[in-house]
Amino acid sequence: MNPGKHLTIVGAGLAGSLLAVLLARRGIAVELFERYPDPRQHKIPAGRSINLALAERGRAALAHAGLLEQVEAFALPMAGRMLHDETGQTRLQRYGQRDDEVIWSVHRGQLNQTLLNAAEAHGVNIHFDRRLSKADFDAGQLHFLDSQDQPHAHDFELAIGCDGAGSALRQAMQSVTELGIREQALGHGYLELSIPPDDAGDFRMDPKALHIWPRGGFMMIALPNPDGSFTCTLFLDNDGDPGFKQLEGPAAMRAFLEREFADAVALMPELDRELAEHPVGFLGTLYVDRWLLGDKAVLLGDAAHAIVPFHGQGMNAAFEDTVALDRLLAESPDRASALKAFQEERKPNADAIAAMALDNYLEMRDRVRDPRFHLQKALEWELEKRLPGQFIPRYAMVMFHPEIPYSQALTRGERQAQLLADLSAGHEALDTIDLEKACATARDRLASV
Ligand SMILES: Cc1cc2nc3c(=O)[nH]c(=O)nc-3n(C[C@H](O)[C@H](O)[C@H](O)COP(=O)(O)OP(=O)(O)OC[C@H]3O[C@@H](n4cnc5c(N)ncnc54)[C@H](O)[C@@H]3O)c2cc1C
Description:
The chain has 449 residues and is α/β, with parallel strands linked by helices. It has helices spanning 14-25, 56-64, 68-72, 108-121, 168-174, 250-260, 262-265, 271-277, 302-305, 314-331, 335-365, 371-386, 394-400, 406-424, 435-446; strands spanning 6-10, 29-33, 51-54, 76-78, 80-84, 90-94, 103-107, 125-127, 131-136, 141-145, 151-155, 159-161, 181-195, 209-214, 219-224, 230-237, 281-288, 292-293, 297-299. The strands form four sheets. Strands 6-5-14-15-16-13-17 form a seven-stranded mixed beta sheet. A six-stranded mixed beta sheet has the order 8-2-1-12-19-18, with helices on both faces. The longest helix has 31 residues, at 335-365. The structure holds flavin-adenine dinucleotide.
């Protein structure tokens, strides 16, 4: 085995398969292990989040891997949030003021398969039906079980954990060193439902938007799929009123959905079956203080920093991780320094997007209903137009500006939020705000950012 030229990745999900492509492109022999059978040949358990929002950070990583065009072929652009009120009235709130400021709905399965095809085309050796069960870091050996519980051992130099929020590699690392793991449950869960295409195979709602039914303490969202359907996700308190426990049983849940989301329920012919079959998913944030074990193992993506899905950034952040790790492994003098530099670069960003994702739940389910929110949005856009580069709305920094690290988006966003609150205080509409003066104040207060 040629040291440094032979790496092992555990988990062939989104991050693992993209990382495999990046490493293989640099001539590294990559062994990629996945617990499930090949999704291109077998139907894999339905799983969660059938589609995902891909934003500029993720697109930049795909472009870096030479895969953006392939993914764009099945990605659907969404220009804004379509807000649905209780009476079924809708209002589009654009994500950005430029036409290219859109986010993209992508099918998780299709994206994963595209990445697996690319990995294979670059010579990655993919081992499906191999679930990591144990790791012996001193002996440099990983132990996998197949679906018949037959053991398979694999010698490794560096094990890269891309095995998701419940990472087995993280557990194995934690058994030999304290990683500082903290899991914070959100207390809210999610339930996936669907709106199929109409009889002609067309979308039943506008496919160029991410639909939101904000209801204060809870919400439902819907993202379009290329087949004309929408995947809807209800986010709701687990124990509260209303809550998943309180609404247990399809009849109670149906009555609740009909009351709160009548316009959507009218488009859900499969609702009863889905309510009987679909499980409620867990939501939480995973904080891990140490992502590495010397030069033997490292974690990335959800294995290192799973976050709540409200900014649509978990996969985007995981994709950024893969580019950073690949770059640092190529640049650093030795592997231990590369892994250390990786954690130093990415951990503050992971913490920042975790915080912004939690905050975005409040924005999506509640603040979007407040007229002050819309006034501040209008003011943000004026400042962005008049102070290019100096004032960029936080949402835009996260979604459309991959050159701004998450940690900067968080700190700049905090100062901007205070500024917007001050400038809009006492106003009900943009036309009563002195925009010249507002710009001068913004210039002054943001000068040091
Ligand atoms: C409801 C919901 C909505 C979301 N929406 C978005 C969104 O809109 N935009 C966005 O950017 N992100 C979104 N996310 C987050 C996104 O799904 C994750 O951040 C992303 O999947 C992380 O990729 P990963 O490769 O790290 O982990 P995963 O995608 O979880 O991949 C892990 C892989 O490891 C495999 N594995 C697990 N254990 C083992 C083992 N012991 N041995 C071998 N293999 C193993 C798994 O089978 C899987 O293939 C959402 C998440 C949820 C729950």
